[in-house]
Write a structure and sequence with these properties.
- There is one protein chain.
- With about 700 residues, the chain is α+β, with helices and mostly antiparallel strands.
- Helix content is about 45%, strand content about 15%.
- A hairpin with a 3-residue loop joins strand 19 and strand 20.
- Bound molecules: manganese (II) ion.
- The site of manganese (II) ion (MN) has 4 residues, from loops.
């Protein structure tokens, strides 16, 4: 366990004037408060807040933050009260500890963290002072490092999943990439140990094969730069297994195709030297086209700056190189923690700063978004590359790659998004589903009578657009349900020979404990409330039999609901492309054949490109998609070697897929091509399975069938 003087030394190393007496008081206070409590590992409980404080010193956080780390579990887990802390340590620290305690409490009821109401509390607890979140992240990191000591597997899984879903993206959003990567990798180890093992083994194998390549390449880059009079610090490292897994996922490629298994970082003294070093590398080695990115002149939203390039470097290996200054490197690794000014909330005006992100979270919380929505959107935006587009007046709008004119419209203004009916890209009328490219000038055509369309949801990639559309759909959906519920209720009353009067409804609301008529109708419309209870609440004597015969909202058709098609309209899923929930889809209305749903890139759409009137904009209904089972079709090239097919089946089964059909399409001397039909939940599930297949050594290519 770290000693008192060691902690003090660590703080003094970056903050000479730190109040050591205060630190020591907190050390002793926390140790006494936790007394003989133990952790799951058997260690004294106090070792935990102490380690968390240690992590805070690695991040070079200010003294009140380190003190908060020492005290962070005292209110929650000991007899200590808010007032005790305030009397001894002052208002500032008491509030910080209180904030961390509130976050921890929400965590305990984690099933409910996803509710809008809990999300609101969660965000409010951390958006006041970013230091609350920093301590919470340090706390989570230590808990993840010691996760294996928790005996209950479901509990470990829950904590790991929450880390992956919430805390790692938050750390990323705060620009703290080292921390994010460690959190993700620890969670990955718990959630998908097989996948992680296969990547680690592969990394070890490649490292052994290349015989110290990382060091050789590092030395060579350093030598070349020194020769050109650029003073630099060069570091090479193996990427963490989870980063590799994610890249494989995103790009849907195999391990060998990844150029950035090894990452190299060149740190230099000035911005001018960044570009000079880039020039030297590009003239010494061949560059890989399309891989150069200048995040120095165009900062990433979280403040990240760097040059990225990929070269065919020493040893003929494709390597990714990041070039940046010392300051940029600090920010790249420590993010918010690197801005010493966070204490004063400096940076609030910059709408790209992490503080602005916390503010935005606050806004979303007030608008009633759920944490799940926000995190999903956060993840999306965080990992995507950007495209830069212009308004007709020349304003620059940065959007994630894959963004459409709808994203663009919402990025400019929510009203513009809501009312958008069309777009002109570089002067030419273009469909709303067009993916924007760098440098596009986008003019949005708007109409006052337009409202957000359900099918848009599948066309957008930004959180802002997605949440605006969802909000609208939720409201529209509810209005619809209320209307249906009311109609059903009226009919039920008629059947019971009664009339549904306003007074009767008031009575029913009171008895059934609803706050307003619409809530009652919504419950009926959704089938959560039996009609006989409603009728009975008003006319207890009439419920003998008749009224309850008709069950509320008796649907139960097997078709997965699709937005853009009224419920009840039949459709078929394309036998060519096997769309699954989450895929971008379109409908094709062929005369005499009805509606067929295809993935947007299905080859069988080709002949219909000139007949826009046959096309329907569709999207998957996102309500209750968990239960649906769809069939995806994969085309897999498999090495012709013993055990390969068995391995394929094992990998799919381990990823939770159920093979419903398997057939050989082509047989070559060294490989087989298989067509595999798999029952899956949604497109995320398919991608997961494909990534797992990519990681398997006997699989050479995996693709979705496309007609
Ligand atoms: Mn803790």
């Amino acid at each position: 366990m770290m000693r008192q003087y060691e902690l003090a030394e660590r703080v003094r190393a970056y903050d000479e004037g730190a109040d050591e007496a205060l630190l020591n008081r907190a050390y002793v206070f926390a140790m006494k408060a936790h007394g003989s409590q133990r952790r799951a590992s058997g260690d004294p409980y106090f070792s935990h807040p102490l380690e968390v404080a240690g992590i805070c010193t690695e991040l070079k956080l200010d003294l009140p933050t380190v003190v908060t780390a020492l005290l962070h579990d005292t209110i929650e887990d000991t007899d200590t009260s808010y007032d005790d802390i305030r009397k001894i340590f002052g208002e500032e620290i008491a509030q910080l500890v209180d904030g961390v305690t509130k976050l921890s409490k929400l965590e305990l009821q984690s099933e409910r963290t996803k509710d809008a109401e809990n999300f609101r509390k969660f965000v409010l607890a951390m958006s006041d002072d970013v230091r609350v979140l920093l301590v919470k992240l340090a706390d989570r990191l230590h808990n993840m490092r010691t996760l294996t000591h928790i005996p209950s597997a479901p509990k470990r899984q829950r904590i790991a999943q929450e880390t992956m879903d919430i805390y790692a993206p938050l750390a990323g959003r705060m620009g703290m990439h080292e921390l994010r990567e460690e959190l993700e990798d620890l969670a990955f180890q718990e959630l998908n140990p097989d996948a992680r093992d296969s990547i680690v083994k592969r990394q070890e194998f490649l490292a052994a094969q290349s015989g110290g390549r990382v060091q050789r390449v590092t030395d060579e880059i350093k030598r070349v730069l020194t020769g050109a009079n650029v003073e630099s610090w060069v570091r090479g490292r193996q990427k963490r297994p989870y980063s590799i897994w994610r890249k494989m996922h995103e790009k849907s490629i195999s391990f060998e195709q990844l150029s950035d298994i090894m990452g190299f970082r060149v740190v230099v003294g000035s911005v001018a030297d960044c570009y000079k070093a880039l020039g030297v590398l590009h003239t010494t080695w061949r560059t890989v086209p399309g891989r150069f990115k200048d995040y120095i002149s165009l900062k990433k939203p979280n403040g990240y700056q760097s040059l990225h390039t990929t070269i065919v470097g020493p040893d003929n290996a494709r390597i990714e190189v990041q070039i940046r200054t010392v300051d940029m490197n600090e920010i790249a690794e420590r993010g918010v923690a690197a801005h010493w000014a966070y204490k004063d909330h400096v940076g609030l005006e910059d709408k790209h700063s992490p503080y602005a992100f916390l503010q935005q979270l606050g806004e979303m919380a007030r608008e009633g978004e759920t944490l799940e929505d926000v995190i999903e959107n956060t993840k999306l935006e965080l990992f995507q590359d950007q495209v830069f587009c212009f308004t007709p007046k020349g304003a620059l709008i940065a959007l994630p790659k894959g963004a459409t004119p709808i994203d663009f419209a919402y990025a400019v203004h929510t009203d513009l998004g809501n009312q958008c009916v069309g777009a002109r890209i570089n002067g030419r009328p273009s469909p709303l589903r067009t993916r924007l490219s760098n440098g596009d000038e986008v003019e949005i055509v708007r109409s006052k009578s337009q409202t957000p369309q359900p099918a848009w949801e599948a066309m957008v990639v930004t959180g802002k657009a997605r949440s605006a559309i969802r909000r609208h759909i939720r409201n529209a959906h509810r209005a619809e349900i209320v209307k249906i519920g009311r109609r059903i209720a009226e009919k039920a009353f008629l059947e019971a020979d009664q009339e549904l009067t306003d007074k009767g409804v008031e009575e029913a609301i009171k008895r059934l404990k609803f706050s307003k008529p619409d809530d009652l109708y919504a419950a009926v419309g959704q089938g959560q409330l039996a009609l006989k209870d409603v009728v009975g609440a008003v006319f207890p004597e009439s419920v003998a039999d008749g009224a309850s015969r008709r069950k509320a909202n008796g649907k139960g058709h097997k078709l997965i609901p699709i937005r853009g098609l009224t419920a009840g309209i039949g459709y078929r899923l394309g036998e060519c492309c096997h769309p699954v929930p989450g895929d971008r889809i379109v409908g094709l209305m062929e005369p005499g054949k009805g509606i067929t749903v295809h993935t947007i890139d299905c080859d069988s759409l080709e002949p219909f490109h000139e007949q826009p009137d046959l096309w329907l904009d569709l999207g998957w209904e996102t309500f209750a998609k968990e239960t649906a089972q769809s069939t995806a079709r994969l085309v897999v090239d498999l090495a012709n070697e013993p055990g390969a097919l068995a391995a394929l089946c094992t990998v799919i089964a381990k990823a939770g897929g159920n093979i419903s059909n398997l057939k050989i399409v082509e047989r070559g001397p060294s490989f087989f091509q298989f067509q595999v039909d798999i029952e899956v939940r949604d497109v995320k599930h398919v991608t997961n399975i494909m990534t797992a297949l990519h990681a398997s050594p006997s699989v050479s290519t995996v693709e979705r069938a496309r007609g």
